[in-house]
Amino acid sequence: MLTVRGAELVWTGETERPGGELACDRDGLVSAAPVDGDVLDASGCVVTPGLVDAHHHLLQSAFRTLPGTRGVPMREWLPRMASAYGAHGVDAELAHRARPWGWPSRCCPG
Q1: Model-level pTM?
Q2: What is the C-alpha separation between 42 and 68, in angstroms, rounded?
Q3: Which one, of 64, 75, 5, 72, lies nearest residue 33 by Cα?
């Protein structure tokens, strides 16, 4: 169970609640009353339902440790990745093997 506290604004999908607080219980039900459990400090944030960052370059997870691709400018990174994709080939098996490594990274954006 989770209480989200300190938001600048809570948008419910129908109304705006400035300085709102909301809570989610074990069943995923949302209410304005706090619940027992964790508290998330949402200071300075807007809380809104339903926004999920589904954009991810899952295939790139297969090439995370490729030498010369970490911390380099985009103009260097792009041709290196294109070369790697060309050398190894991109197919359904590679995409399937990249998935277990890519999904956990979606849980830790930043």
Answers
A1: 0.44
A2: 37
A3: 5
